[in-house]
Design goal:
Elements lengths: L4 H17 L19 E10 L2 E9 L10 E7 L5 E3 L4 E2 L6 E3 L5 E5 L2 E10 L5 E8 L7 E2 L6 E2 L6 E4 L5 E5 L5 E5 L6 E7 L4 H4 L12 E10 L2 E8 L5 E7 L7 E7 L11 E5 L2 E8 L11 E7 L29 E2 L2 E2 L1 E3 L2 E4 L5 E4 L6 E8 L4 E10 L4 E7 L5 E8 L4 E11 L6 E9 L7 E9 L19 E2 L3 E5 L9 E5 L8 E4 L8 E11 L5 E10 L2 E6 L4 E2 L6 E9 L5 E10 L6 E8 L1
Antiparallel strand pairs: 1-2, 2-3, 3-4, 3-5, 4-24, 6-8, 7-8, 8-9, 9-10, 9-11, 12-13, 13-14, 14-15, 16-17, 17-18, 18-19, 20-21, 21-22, 23-34, 25-28, 26-27, 28-33, 29-32, 29-34, 30-31, 30-33, 35-38, 36-37, 37-45, 38-44, 39-43, 39-45, 40-41, 40-42, 40-44
Amino acid sequence: MRLRLGALLRRGALAIMALLCGVAMIPGTARADNPIVQTIYTADPAPLVHNGRVYLYTGHDEDGSTYFTMKEWRVWSSADMVNWTDHGSPMSVATFAWASADAWAGQAVHRNGKFYWYVPVKDRASGQMAIGVGVSDSPTGPFTDAIGRPLVRNGEIDPSVFIDDTGQAYLYWGNPNLWYVRLNADMISYSGSPTQIPLTTAGFGTRTGNASRPTLYEEGPWVYKRNGLYYNVFAAKCCSEFIGYSTAPGPTGPWTYRGTVMPTQGSSFTNHAGIIDFNGGSYFFYHNGALPGGGGFTRSVAVEKFTYNADGTIPTINMTTAGAPQVGTLNPYVRQEAETIAWGSGVETEPAGEGGMNVGWIENGDYIKVKGVAFGSGATSFSARVASATSGGRIELRLGGVSGTLVGTCTVPGTGGWQTWTTVTCPVTGATGTHDLYFRYTGGSGNLFNVNWWQFTGGSGGNLLANGDMESGTTGWGASGGALSSVTDPVHAGARALAIAGRTASWNGTTQDVTAKLTNGRTYTTSVWVRAQSGTPSAKATLALTAGGTTSYLQLTPATPVTSSGWTRLTGTATVSWSGTLTGATFYVETTAGTDGFTIDDASFQ
């Protein structure tokens, strides 16, 4: 019988943590956040930034593989680079009727309001590897075959797609060679014929000991542009591979080899890179074999944050177990998917009957860590959507570690089926400030229950804004000028956001009355995602306080430029105080100047 990764991770938890961290372990305490997915083996990361989130497209190494046995692709996303939501498998070999096997390394891109995912698969008719293209209206799929046949086929692999700022799109791929085509605007056809990029030692470095492969280039190109310079980051010198890179003045060359990005490290003999900029930082994705049972055919995706050198060169980046730092915090007072995980032990995921994914195969002692949860001044209760075909169990809510402070325990009953869902609620005490939150699952033997989603509620310390996730339309919100509406596109998360148009003054904006919710002298943290409808206005959150007959204005977040091409997070901390009797307090988002319309989503003031 095949041993599931969840069981392997459960058995090897202490061993892997000691190995990864190189420190004496406190039993039950997890310190590492790399690899970023622990529920399955993942490989060949391809990150994409869209609407204020990072979407991560990966391959899936089957448990116990002794070759590149890959049948499907997977998608994950994160708004903070540490807590990753599992969106399941929106595309597989079966998506392409003409393909027979090998769901290997690809890349997705957004254009024309759609998402195009270029992947290599084995063409059934020829037996050769070919490049297919999936298409979807959503970054998380489902994806369908865009053209019903290979886009290009020459037996080579690892497509990478890049859209230049001129609007011209390019598709690169290749092992043992390096090819490109110029994609047409429809992204599913190309002009001309595939062109081979000369692999010169000046362009791609010198390999020794292999006369048929004189350069370091092996496979896995990742092409992008930064400050007018084109970068090609690739897997170099098999085997084992390292990550090298070259630069060029144009998208097709001439290329100049620049050196090593990531040396040969980890227990996988392959590596595969993806690089993005997100929320003011630069991030390098790669894979290794760091999970229990991991190796060259059972790999795991990881990420590091880095800073370019002043001259634009990429520094040497080493694999770590710490991973990237968190961007902001996680809001527990809006619904969070149970499969949003910073680190998990023992658990796995599956499609949920209610839609999306759920966490399952939970056994006694398994746990999930969610990093950087901002409880503010206090949570009062916790709810979770659960199902159990057995007698259920308990969810322990702990802060700081699996043996950390216990702030609540929810009992999960038997529900009559693994997809027969009910919501359980329990009281919470002592959950204040910002902590790593651990869900520790306890009960009898065997599988206990499934979890679909969870959410905390708070007293004065929770989110003071009603309908902060905007999922209930305009409920709780008003406008200080202009017209307010609930919209389904664009959204930062969930299904809805709030848009304001027809503004006639900079102070016109989305508003909410918080008069009865404030405590004099208390410090509050604000977070709100904003997107311009046009222009590049500078936005900020403000609190208008009326006390003793006088109105004063407290700026809650720094003024920050926002654009129409993506979401920008406004965040800040401010102490709210007043003299006399408070008769009015209004939270609102405005601009420093101008009357451009904007959209807000996922707002918290706590």
